[in-house]
Predict the 3D structure of the following.
Amino acid sequence: MKNKKYHIITIGCQMNKNDSERIASCLEDLGYVWTPEKNQADILVFTTCGVRQSAEDRVYGLIPEIKKQNQDVKIILTGCLSGRPDVRKRLDGVVDVWLPITELPLLAERLGLEQAGENSMTGYFKIQPKYDSMFSAYVPIGNGCNNFCAYCVVPYARGREDYRPAGDVINEAEELIKRGYKEITLIAQNVNSYKSNDYNFAKLLKEINDLPGRFWLRFATSHPKDMSDELIETMSKCEKLCHHVHLPAQAGNNEILRRMNRKYTREHYLDLIKKIRQKLNTPLTPSHSTGQARGDRGIFEPPVSISTDIIVGFPGETEEQFNHTADLFREVKFDMVYISQYSPRPGTVAEKMEDNVPKIEKKRREECLNDILSETALANNQVYFGEMVEILFDEKKGKNQIGKTKAGKTVRAETQENLIGQIRKVKIIKVQDFGMIGTLI
């Protein structure tokens, strides 16, 4: 095989992005070379997402179109849609290899190659990723989900929860830090249900926080039913942990939460937000690793940032029940919310429920929540005005360098310097609802 090229299209969450990094590693292990042009690829991988219909529809549109333009390209479909019989039937004849991600070590065999790479001899989580970034990395701590929320296809697509040994996670994080990575994000479908021998997520988080080096530590995503007092207390003592908590609420009405099978109430969720803000908004004592407390270098330490996921128009959601969600927005004052209009997912409990909220009403409810979010996000950002913050720059657009604060706030600064991958001090000169403008110090 000579000069064979591959291209990967990733749709969906951080787990899918990390899966694609492992797929890239396997393909290069087999002698393939990455190309940025999908129409020049000999192998085209789709890492798919089935959480929303819109993500699924992208696959149905893209794959036949690409196959029509290049009939010789070999298409591999992996991710959340790879095991769905209806998807396989619909894309029969245009997808060449169906590859559930846990079967990645079998890639050479599925491609009909006689020569197997080194990655074929190891398990999925043992495969060394080809990291997309040289400064920020996702480190998976597990895969799968046991929660079976009524609307969610993930437990069927990814299977039951399976967690990596703590030693493997810590070793991967330590190696990244030694290589100069500035940001480590621990990921799983539900990080705070992590268990490995005598480790829970709180213990794992603390051990990675205590690794030597200057880096930012994040994690996603948490389930409210597993956000324990122990974990919140541990988070408050981790000086490298970014004060941005993503805690999906999904709805603000108890009956809807019950029918979603979320296993918590509105009152429990609000109590968690109160505890998180009480603990994480308290300044840290000087750390053993830096000898300095937050704020010692003149860096502004804002309140903890809270983001969430919300579904509007779940089957049977009345106007009154939706208003409870709107009230939740006003009470919590979220910094960011990812709002989706409910769409039935094959095989889930909710698929059997009557999808009786009209699409136009779902759109109205989404717009209503976005209006509230815009107000609370702008009010939250006002505390940054005139302050100096640290930014990890990760993108360049024209004259602007764009990055994020430790609290996950997007900031852009105009400069001729190339700041990608650097943590720099910036003074905030303008605030907006979903972003800020700063000048380099």
Remarks:
- Residues 133-242 form a domain with the Transcription Regulator spoIIAA fold (CATH 3.30.750.210).
- Residues 359-381 form the longest helix (23 residues).
- Residues 284-296 have pLDDT under 50 and may be disordered.
- DSSP finds twelve helices and 20 strands in the chain.
